[in-house]
Amino acid sequence: MSEMKTAAYLCSGCGIGEKLDIASLSKVAQREGKMMLVKEHEFLCSAEGVGMIRADIAEGVTHAAIAACSRRAKTEAFDFPGTALSRVNLREGVIWVVAEGHEEIRQEMAEDYLRMGCAELKKMKMPEGNPGRKLNRRILVAGGGFSGLTAALAAADAGYEAVIVEKEDHLGGHAAKLAKRVPFREPYREPVDTGIDALLEKVGAHPKISVHLESTIAETSGAPGRFFVKISGPAGEKIEEAGAIVQASGFSGYDIAKLPHLGGGKYPDVVDQAGVEEMAKSGNFTKKDGRAISSVAFVQCAGQRDPEHLPYCSGHCCATSIKQAMYFKEANPDTETVVLFTDLRVPGMGEDFYRSAQEKGVIFAKGKVSSVSEAGNGLRVNFRDLILDEETSLDADLVVLATGQVPNSGVNIDLPEEGQVSVLNLNYRQGRDMPQLVHGFTDSHFICFPYETRRTGIYAAGPVRRPMDMMQASVDATGATLKAIQALENAALGRAAHPRSGDLSYPHVRLEGCTQCKRCTVECPFGAIDEDEKRYPVFNESRCRRCGTCMGACPVRVISFENYSVDTVGAQLKAVEIPDEFSEKPRILILACENDAYPALDMAGVQRLTYSAFVRAIPVRCLGSVNTIWITDALNSGYDGVMMMGCKHGENYQCHFVKGSELANYRMSKIDDTLNQLGLEAERVATHEVAITDSARVAKMIDDYVASINEIGMSPMKGFG
Amino acid sequence: MSESFERYRSNFLREVEEKVEEGEWVKMCMQCGVCAGSCPFGPHWEHSPQKIFMMIRAGKREEVLSSDSMWMCTSCYNCIVRCPRKLPITHIMHGLANYSHRLGMAPKGQPTRQFAKLFWDNLVKKGRVNELKLTMKHYFRNGFSAGIREAMAMKEIGQGMMKAGRINPMEFFGGHAVKDLSGFHAMLAKAREIEDRKKGFSD
After folding, report:
1. Of the candidates B112, B99, B98, B105, which has an alpha carbon nearest to the alpha carbon of residue B41?
2. Do B98 and B120 fall into the same domain?
3. B5 to chain A: nearest residue by CA?
4. β-strands A390-396, A251-253 pairing
5. What are the tens digits of pLDDT across the range A498-553?
6. CATH hierarchy code of domain A138-250+408-492
7. Does the beta-carbon distance from B51 to A387 stay under 8 Å?
8. Which of A63, A323, A660, B87 has the fewest CB atoms within 10 Å, counting from its CB?
9. Mind listing the pLDDT tens digit for each residue in A377-398?
10. Which residues of B touch A394 (CB under 8 A)?
11. Is A332 exposed, middle or buried (0-12, 13-18, 19+ CB in 10 A)?
12. Residues on B contacting A at a C-beta cutoff of 8 Å
């Protein structure tokens, strides 16, 4: 590797030059930052300013500190591939947030940020992309139902090979069992052909798609770009290599026998929606005893939105019942059809479809069904009419229970139960299937990243991810396929997939220092780290999302990234000058998640909200990457307090790395011992949840915290660091 | 079969569609309740339009047609303006009232119905409304002494209207008619005949 040549560039534009003493900042960069080259410019992001930096890089500068605006601003101007870069946030972080009349502490703040930037820069290495990379433009699709077929076709049409693994002896799944489907496009009036035959034909004829029928996945190993999938089929076992995987394992209908109060499993003329499709497909609308059906009652939410059965809404069943009522009206307009619902939910343009059924004379009644019993030759549905507010009943020849979708998620790796059959059979340390988010669905982040699962390169699509209808499944399958393509292409270049898409850094581990504590292998939110036979961690870099949770977890600090490590952050916090105990100038360290909290701090600046100039903020990739050594180092060096700002955790979390914020919170709950040892108050370390929109709140949070530290008093640790 | 055999069957709904003005709209109600919430008379009705529509679907023929609810409609049109399904609710209410009246199921002595009858009879007689006679008939609907009391209470307004020439006391004796009274009556008879044919009334 060539010599490191450092340079610092100070911008005086955007009012920085008027508010700060640039000449003395230059001296700080030279004398304390030890920058080999220091230059000032009045408009650094201009073509001229950028040209100056480029010329220096051509002359041999390898590491550049840009003291100007936030790292989130002017990223296109300050883009120097191959050069290590640190950004010193003088604009959003200093001049825009320090109240007027505090010139001295404002200058101190700027100088500290410059010291920090220089210190960080010297610890940075240029990331080179992870090893173990491989290009494989083949996507394995687990499941040959509507979602799986759509995914395979989307991949193949995009020029990628697709391999479908289907456990049945035919493709098509539930969709092939439907007589017709709900329309996807206007006029939204009549049930339409499912299109499954045309889809099957396309898939069958596509040269890039191959199919394994009556097959299951016996084992999945590897990582994006180099998955090895052992397929067990009638002809024995076969290994298929794939760059990425789409899991479209679909759903099973909720068993109506679990609903005896609604007559499920008790009376032959109580059926589920699949039962009606069978009738419609054969055209034989008769009761089990062969008599004609003159009246049908549809019971919506049967065993759904019910804590004793499925607690959720499956989303498609209202439209499906509407469609099925139309089957009966089509066969015989005199058939009485009543849909009993508590809330009729028809997403998309389903409202038009609902209206069409009303025009055809389907009766809709808002009622909560309590039971189904026998009455004469037929059935009686007992319910409470919620509009007329009375207990009532109606008689019908056939009762259809609109039951929900149960995802085929495989093994619940967090709470395994007897009888669960794995779908993927991953040989990962953290379990054989993907983690489930809620109610057994294989989802990861429904708020921000609906297509991103917690196993990089493996994407769930269709009703296994969340309950949905065919239209949503077709969108879902296409989305998952695009993610799969993105993941395998990134993996081939040794880059991170989402959300740090394109990041070339990857975790380096110094195994000789490892104590086999397993924290990293257990805590990695993405199951990227396995264990070898000696129980050392085995990093599968292509599976890594570069959040740094392993780095935060490691008690012996042997895990680091080239440009983000215990040292890069440690050097920054140690670069801050700590005034003595009697200066009345406390120093508060802020470790802010770069995804939400740091932008919120920047936005406070953009809105010219002011906050205390005693804080020094360091962005971190995720709060999960915060190693407790940073906290102890900070307190040992005389900081008066540490604020940690991360995303919302727990239920409805907003952490980009799912578990990072939660883990940080958990780790900090144990920091009291350390504080006790140091003889410090528990309040000196605080964790906060900050959303990206919290700019006003974060400014107040800082001022309140500084006030509370002033109340406790200055840290006694100053001067020993 | 039991009484519940008829419940939630479409026979009454079909009857309403055939016989009631704008009745074909009833099936399109989505039970959101905006009409019920918008009605200025809401708290005074036994059944809101939303409930009436549900009762029709539930097959409650007797209860709907003998209800006084639709007679309480003041034609403010709030419900029509607000109905997300664009149901002409006011018209349906009048249609239902009219139908129940024709069937003889409308509640006897219901005040708005009584007044509507007075108004119609008054109008038909001469082809225009005789305000003096209409007022008198209305005041004296509950007998002589009650009529005097009501008339006395409105005395000042009546005198004011006479002074302003809005009411002519001579109208009490016969009153004037439209130019072609027999033509007017023939027109009404024809309209009735057409309506009966359309709606299938035989009386």
Report:
1. B112
2. no
3. A395
4. unpaired
5. 889 889 999 999 999 999 999 999 999 999 999 999 999 999 999 999 999 999 99
6. 3.50.50.60
7. yes
8. B87
9. 899 999 999 999 999 999 999 9
10. 4, 7-8
11. exposed
12. 1-2, 4-5, 7-10, 13, 27-28, 30-31, 50-51, 54-55, 57-58, 85
Asked whether the beta carbons of B133 and B122 are under 8 A apart, the reply is: yes
Residues of B within 8 A of A336 (CB-CB) are 8-10
Chain A residue numbers with beta carbons less than 8 Å from the beta carbon of B9 are 295, 336
Fold type of domain A253-404: FAD/NAD(P)-binding domain (3.50.50)
Classified as helix, coil or strand, A158 is coil
Where in the sequence of chain A do the CATH 3.40.50 domains occur? 1-126, 578-721
Of A355, A365, A394, the CB nearest to B28: A355
Closest residue of chain B to A389, computed from CA coordinates: B51
Q: Facing residues of A646 across strands? A: A689
Domain that holds residue B11: 3-102
Q: Does the beta carbon of A338 lie under 8 angstroms from any beta carbon of chain B?
A: yes
CATH number for position B52: 1.10.1060.10
Nearest to B58 among A344, A355, A388 (CB): A388
Q: Give the separation between CA B186 and CA B194, rounded to whole angstroms.
A: 12
Total tally of structural domains belonging to chain B: 2
Are A336 and B10 in contact (CB < 8 Å)? yes
- Token couple for B83: 């109905």
Q: In the prediction, which pLDDT does A652 show?
A: 82
Nearest to B4 among A361, A364, A393 (CB): A393
- By Cβ distance, the residue of B2, B28, B54 closest to A387 is B54
Same domain assignment for residues B57 and B118: no
β-bridge mates for residue A40, sequence order = A10
Give the mutation candidate from A299, A328, A355, A387 for the B interface (greatest B CB count, under 10 A). Answer: A387
CB A16 within 8 A of CB A25: no
Same domain, B164 and B186: yes
Residues of chain A with CATH 3.50.50.60: 138-250+408-492, 253-404
d(C-alpha A368, C-alpha A38), whole Å: 75
Query: How many other C-beta atoms are found inside a 10 Å radius of the C-beta of residue A211?
Result: 18
The amino acid occupying position A130 is N
Residues B69 and B127 in one domain: no
CATH 3.40.50 applies to domain A1-126: yes
Comparing CB atoms, the residue among B7, B27, B85 nearest residue A361 is B27
Q: Which CATH architecture has domain A578-721?
A: 3-Layer(aba) Sandwich (3.40)
C-alpha distance from residue A98 to each of A28, A120, A391, A459, A572 (Å) = 20, 24, 67, 46, 21
B67 with B116, same domain: the answer is no
Spatial distance between the Cα atoms of A211 and A231, rounded to a whole number of angstroms: 11
In three-state secondary structure terms, A345 is: coil
Q: Which of B48, B79, B102 corresponds to the end of one domain? A: B102
Pick B31's closest partner by Cβ from A338, A366, A393. Answer: A366
Residue A587: other Cβ atoms inside 10 A: 25
* Whether residue B89 is found in the same domain as residue B144: no
Q: Same domain for B116 and B41?
A: no
Q: Of B102, B119, B136, which marks where a domain is finished?
A: B102
Q: What residues are paired with A297 via a beta bridge?
A: A338, A399
Cβ–Cβ gap B9/A336 under 8 Å: yes
Give mean pLDDT in consecutive 10-residue pieces for chain A, a chain of 721 residues: 87 96 97 97 97 96 97 96 95 96 95 97 92 94 98 98 98 97 94 97 98 98 97 96 98 97 97 97 93 96 96 96 98 96 92 96 96 94 96 96 97 91 96 93 76 92 95 96 96 92 93 95 95 93 95 96 96 95 93 96 97 97 95 94 93 87 90 86 94 96 96 87 54
User: A450's torsion region: left (phi>0), alpha (psi -120 to 50) or beta?
Assistant: alpha
